[in-house]
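Q: Convert this sequence to structure tokens.
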Amino acid sequence: MRIALITCERPIGRDDDLDFLVPALKRRGAAIETPAWSDPAVDWASFDVAMLSSTWDYYERLGEFREWLPAVAAATELVNPPGLVEWNLDKRYLLELEAAGIPTVPTVWAEPGAIAEAAAEIAEIGWETVVIKPVIDLGARNLVRVDAGRVEQMLAAFEVPTMAQPYLPSVAAEGELSLVYANGELTHSLRKLPARGDFRVQPMYGGTHAAEELGAVIREIAAEAVAVAPSVPLYSRVDVVGTDDGPAVIELELIEPRLFLDVAPRAADTFAAALLAAAGR
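A:
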């Protein structure tokens, strides 16, 4: 059994999940390679299954990535599959979660030709500090935090569809809660905390994390979010934050999420078994 754990040409960091997933797969007799998705020399048909593991530059090469997805899926079993990836690429999938009754972080969506309208909506809501990012982004790479008076200027500066959300002090104080799923079943959960003085929880900004058992309400919200996806993802991660109205989903990650297997090493065996099962479909 040959399995590709797909990465990129210039990773922004280590894919720490490989430290756990690769041994779990090898224990089951699988041969593992970590090709870059954009390497034209890769023979994708030589793999029994290919998993999007750390394709961290896809948002910078979006057109190329979108052309690559169906081509690879035609050659091998790609997980998560192109339909799920396409649905999850644009963060406007959050609108579908909201329509399904799942609490999400309040969001104003801004198109390049309607910046003034979006800024006026934000002003009417009364957010004093606003977090803005493109609707297609990765790891808060292009996220900015601005005061209300600079919202329209910053929205215009992006020149792409963007999303604006209220700055949540709870994220700086309490971090984010993440729930990880294999084939729709919860495997583990954790809390991610930002570095002192920051609100971004990603490791590249000094964020830390630790395993944490979460309550029934948060588990229910997260499970409902996963269920909204067009099909059952082999792997998924839901990020939940605290708002004035209670816990809310801020992200549903189905493309190349960090699974934080370091806090639940046994979960690597669950994902390894799921990958091998996918290879046999």
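Residues 62-75 form the longest helix (14 residues).
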